[in-house]
Structures are given as structure tokens and as C-alpha cells.
């Protein structure tokens, strides 16, 4: 019967932890590279969808008093 106090698990655990740290450092290194991922920032891009056909708002405005009575009716 093996005991948890046996030290056979220490070396593989250290190797696995070192491997995980190495992979984590490489992934953050790619994120902080000097070459940008985009040529232009998102705020510098031109709008590609034309918005010349704007229409006025079509939904009716609801008054607050009407809205309060509606809430009272539905709370029963």
C-alpha cells in the first residue's frame, strides 16, 4: 500500500507545473508583441454601412401615469 507521503509524485508534479507556466508565458508573450494585431484601431475605421435612410421613431410614447396604473393592475 502506497502512502501519500511517498515522494514519487513530487518530481512529475514539478515538471507539469513548470510546463504549464512555460506555456502561459508564451501565450502572454504573443499578446504583448510589438507588432499590432490590427493595422488601424477600431475608432479609426470608416463606417462601411451607409446610414442615409434614417426614419423617425415610430413607437408611441407611454406616459408615466399610465405605466404606474398598468403595474398596479398586474400586481394582483
Secondary-structure blueprint of this entry?
Elements: H1 10-31, H2 64-74
Compute the separation of the termini in Å: 68 Å
Total E-strand runs: 0
Low-confidence runs of at least 5 consecutive residues? none
Q: Which structural class do the helices and strands define?
A: mainly alpha
- Tell me, rounded to a whole number, the average pLDDT: 73
Helix content: 40-55%
Rounded to an integer in angstroms, the radius of gyration calculated over CA atoms is 31 Å
Strand content: under 5%
Please give a structural write-up.
The structure is a single chain. The chain has 76 residues and is mainly alpha-helical. The protein has helices spanning 10-31, 64-74. The mean pLDDT is 73.
Summarize the structure.
This protein has helices spanning 10-31, 64-74. With 76 residues, the chain is an all-alpha fold.
For the structure shown, list the relevant keywords.
76 residues; mainly alpha; 2 helices
